[in-house]
Structures are given as C-alpha cells and as structure tokens.
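Session log. Operator J.P. requested a structure for one protein chain; no other inputs attached. Running the standard single-chain path with token output.
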Amino acid sequence: MVNGFGDRLVASEYAYDEPIHVYVPQAGERWIPERLWFRLVSLGRAYETHLLPLLPGSAEPQTLNGQQVVNLADEIEFLISIVDDEALSSVVAELRSLFAEASALSRI
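Structure written below.
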C-alpha cells in the first residue's frame, strides 16, 4: 500500500476501538468500532445521504422507525458499492445481517 496507510484498510486494526452500539429492537445488536462508524458517517456526509450523517455514534440511544432502518440500509449499500475499503466492508457485513434480521421480523 502507498505511503504506509494500508493498515487503515485492515479490520483488525480497529479491534480495540471504543465500540458504537447499533441496536434494532427484537432483531439484535452489533458493536461497531468507533473509527469505522465515523468513517461510514463521514462518507454519508460526503455523498449527501439523508439519514447516516444525522446519527452521532455515541452512547446516546438513537431510535429509528422501520422506514428509517430501510433507508439507512439503502444508504449504506450505496456507500459500500462505491468505496473499496476492506475494513469498512467488514462493518457493513455486520450491519447487513442486522438489517436482514429486522426486515425478516417486520414481515412476520
């Protein structure tokens, strides 16, 4: 990798970050490394997505309704489709599984 920044694309580099708690009632929860969460939020800002930049990623709970969860999933899918970042891809995989669980529950 150029200029020694390659470690920023390795998920294990973020293993000891403060975790951000992403929780969807009845569907589950994921703990996302803080710097990777902020990277995702920053990308949302850069590409002017609607919901992602509004989420602070703090210990404060954020309540999203079903439609907001769908919108957030769409925003994240868009961002990961245009960025080649292995570390961020690992976070998105975790979020995808959470959103899939939430979607399955909403159909019951």
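Operator note: Helices lie at 34-46, 66-82, 86-106.
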